[in-house]
Amino acid sequence: MRIAMIGGGYVGLVSGACFAEFGIDVALVEADAARLAALRDGRIPIYEPGLDRLVAENVAAGRLSFGNDLAEAVNGAEAVFIAVGTPTRRGDGHADLTYVYAAAAQVAKVLTGYTVIVTKSTVPVGTGERIHEIVRDVRPDLDFDVASNPEFLREGSAINDFMRPDRVVIGCTSARAQAVMRSLYRPLYLIEAPILFTSVQTAELTKYAANAFLAMKVTFINEMADLCEKVDADVHDIARGIGLDGRIGRKFLHPGPGFGGSCFPKDTLALARIAQDAGAPSRLVETVVAVNDARKAGMAARVIAACGGSVRGKTIAVMGLTFKPETDDMRDAPSIPIVSRLVADGARLRVFDPEGMDAARKLLPPDVVYCKDAMDAVAGADALVVVTEWNEFRALSPARLRRSMVGKIVVDLRNIYDPIAMRQAGFVYHGIGRPLAA
User: Fold this and answer.
1) From CA 35, how far away is CA 57, in angstroms rounded?
2) Is residue 55 located within the same domain as residue 165?
3) Angle of helix 283-306 versus helix 264-277 axis, rounded to 10
4) Max Cα separation, the chain?
5) How confident is the model at residue 437 (pLDDT cuts 50, 70, 90)?
6) 399 shares a domain with 301
7) pLDDT tier at 89 (50, 70, 90 boundaries)?
8) How many domains does the chain have?
9) What's the Cα-to-Cα distance from 323 to each of 5, 89, 224, 293, rounded to whole Å?
10) Which active-site residues does the annotation give?
11) How many CB atoms lie within 10 A of CB 375?
């Protein structure tokens, strides 16, 4: 089989490489000249564990190619996937579908035979119907179907999520389109991965509903962490106590500074707007958005309070900048409002992240000092703030950290350290949702 993948960003590149690993010929189309040059040169423009090897192997095998000639890419393709960006639209919170609709029109112009046009991008309900109208207006003669195949890839484990998914959701109506999609995902049938066929509208909404539900779990445990701090309870025991209930589950019950990244902030806001426009407002989702925004904005206040009410003139080390470990993604990362507020209040910031430094330079205040590693960041610091839970930070011994720092304040926003060990090393330790005596 042969497919075309429009868009060489995170979703398009990971999906294209994984489909190629299935044995499918994948022509990936990338309009950005710099990104295309990097891909052709074997340089992966995003960080995702294992992706560089997967891309290299499938390029070498001739199953994965990169180009900017759309007509050449779709020639003979049984399916064309649209995997372009859908950023939040300025002013109203809706997903911006400009790139999706432009791609659909361009694809329609160059198709020569029956093809399934598939949205991989996260798109609101009704997008598939609008794509069908666009393609039909451009090419009344064309034989095609429109399908929705939302991605459920977690940054940092995207390849495994594609190869061994919890489920695959496919929205399409015709038997012909279903047959094409079944063939594409045939390797997953062999491992009995659940594959759900449904309507296009249902598939579109499923992606938003899934992300909103997970975001609600994150927000819920964060609010429980705040309550724990008031009543001297332990949020980790609470998370375990409720997570062992099979109806609830353990995942996404980890307290922290609030969710960020490319999906949860954008998708919860978009779902809230979709629901409002449909006349069925989702008050839960609206509250999740508001609570999470407030939490991220308020994390710097925790640091300031831990430092005695002022950070002016103090050197503060920040370990971790990306919204989660195992990615270089800085989109809506909690580190951005935290660092920005601390700098604005007169602190000197020394920061380190294993993969996010380049992206951070474009988003953080200009006078932030970027360090070569974690120990370089903490050297001479009055206080340490842990924002992202990279494993290499967990391995740092409290005694070593204490020897390198001038001050003794640690604000651990991910609870990666043992409170008792930190206090025995001489630190004044502040975690999230843990009893003071822990």
Assistant:
1) 19
2) yes
3) 140
4) 75
5) low
6) yes
7) confident
8) 3
9) 27, 21, 21, 14
10) 263
11) 16
Task: Give the domain range for residue 66.
Answer: 2-198
Half-sphere exposure of 243 (CA within 13 A, CB side): 15
Quick check: is 205 in a domain?
no
* Domain C-terminal end among 289, 309, 338: 289
What tens digit of pLDDT does each residue of 186-204 get?
999 999 999 999 999 999 9
Whether 59 and 176 share a structural domain: yes
Is residue 204 one of the residues assigned to a domain? no
| Shared-domain flag, residues 230 and 365 | no
Mean pLDDT of 64-69: 97
Confidence of residue 331 (pLDDT cuts 50, 70, 90): very high
| Partners of 351 in beta bridges | 318, 370
The answer on 403 and 305 residing in a single domain is: yes
Mark whether 182 and 42 lie in a shared domain.
yes
Helix/strand/coil for 59: helix
Phi and psi angles of residue 327, each rounded to the nearest 5 degrees, phi first: -155, 160
Residue 19 belongs to some domain of the structure? yes
327 and 404 share one domain: yes
CATH number, domain of 41, equals: 3.40.50.720
Cβ distance 164 to 190 under 8 Å? no
> From CA 193, how far away is CA 177, in angstroms rounded?
20
In the numeric block, the tokens 């005694």 are attached to 399
Residues 6 or more apart whose CB falls under 8 angstroms from that of 8 comprise 16, 28, 29, 30, 32, 35, 36, 39, 45, 66
Residues 360, 386 contacting (CB under 8 angstroms): no
pLDDT exceeds cutoff 90 at 309:
yes
Contact, 338 vs 300, CB < 8 A? yes
CATH number at residue 259: 1.10.1040.10
31: closest CA among 66, 55, 62, 76?
66
Distance CA 159, CA 50 (A): 8
User: What tokens appear for 43 in the block?
Assistant: 């340089």
The H-or-E segment that residue 21 falls in is helix 10-21
Structure tokens at 33: 């000249």
Both structure tokens of 285: 């989702």
How far apart are the C-alpha atoms of 412 and 419, rounded to whole Å? 9
Domain boundary (258, 289, 320) is at 289
Among 77-91, 212-226, 316-330, 361-375, whose mean pLDDT is lowest? 77-91
Which residues, other chains included, contact 137 with Cβ-Cβ below 8 Å and sequence gap of 6+? none
Structure tokens at 98: 């400009």
Instruction: Confirm whether 385 is domain-assigned.
Output: yes
353 plus 231 within the same structural domain: no
